[in-house]
Specification:
Largest sheet: none
Bound molecules: fe (ii) ion
CATH topology: Hypothetical protein af1432
CATH class: Mainly Alpha
CATH superfamily: Hypothetical protein af1432
Strand content: under 5%
Number of strands: 0
CATH architecture: Orthogonal Bundle
Number of domains: 1
Oligomer: single chain
Order of helices and strands: HHHHHHHHHHH
Distance between the termini: 33 Å
Radius of gyration: 16 Å
Number of helices: 11
Length: 194
């Protein structure tokens, strides 16, 4: 039987050594925010906690190491051309191979930069928590309220801002983000009711 409390502490220690103090603070903020949302949406708290701890595990690794991990991941072409997206795929890979997370537990890490069509509640909780944690310079407590009232609406608001920002910079939009946007705009159930 795996002791997940110890696993969390091990993961935190590894992450602390792999990222800057500022990024570590961000990760602590994401963990805290994601845990509140996990309770709100009746998700497995330990699964969300591990995913939140590990979501930026590879973000500050030296480039050669990132590229080596990418070879294992074999991402799509658009991801390959967008270094900002690499760490979601490589951190997902390490969560499984370094920390023995199940596919299910690791999945939110994989989608935390692009989103995707048919996101699970866990996927959305990590995606949203990553963007609205208290350490963000554009932190707004109203976003947390929205996330607690309707995670789909929070997801849509954040993704919209990200897509517009990316377009304003003249950069391409990843197909998974576009699929996510269309899914949020057109599919039911986009309103989560307790
Ligand atoms: Fe990230
Ligand atoms: Fe993050």
């Amino acid at each position: 039987m795996m002791n997940w409390e110890n696993r969390c502490n091990q993961a935190l220690a590894v992450v602390k050594r792999s990222v800057s103090p500022a990024r570590y603070l961000h990760i602590e903020g994401v963990v805290q925010t994601a845990m509140i949302l996990a309770t709100r949406y009746s998700l497995d708290p330990m699964a969300i906690r591990m995913a939140a701890i590990l979501h930026d595990r590879t973000k500050e690794l030296p480039k050669p190491q990132q590229l080596k991990l990418l070879e294992e991941v074999k991402p799509d072409l658009m991801t390959l051309k967008s270094p900002a997206l690499w760490h979601a795929k490589t951190a997902h890979y390490l969560a499984i191979h370094e920390f023995q997370l199940s596919e299910e537990w690791a999945e939110p890490i994989r989608w935390h930069t692009t989103g995707r069509e048919n996101m699970s509640l866990s996927d959305m909780v990590l995606y949203v928590a990553d963007q609205i944690e208290p350490g963000r310079e554009f932190y707004d407590p109203k976003d947390m309220e929205l996330a607690q009232n309707n995670i789909y609406a929070a997801m849509k608001k954040i993704l919209q801002a990200k897509l517009m920002f990316t377009m304003q910079k003249g950069q391409p939009l990843h197909q998974d983000s576009l699929a996510c946007w269309n899914w949020l705009c057109t599919s039911s159930p986009r309103v989560y009711e307790a």
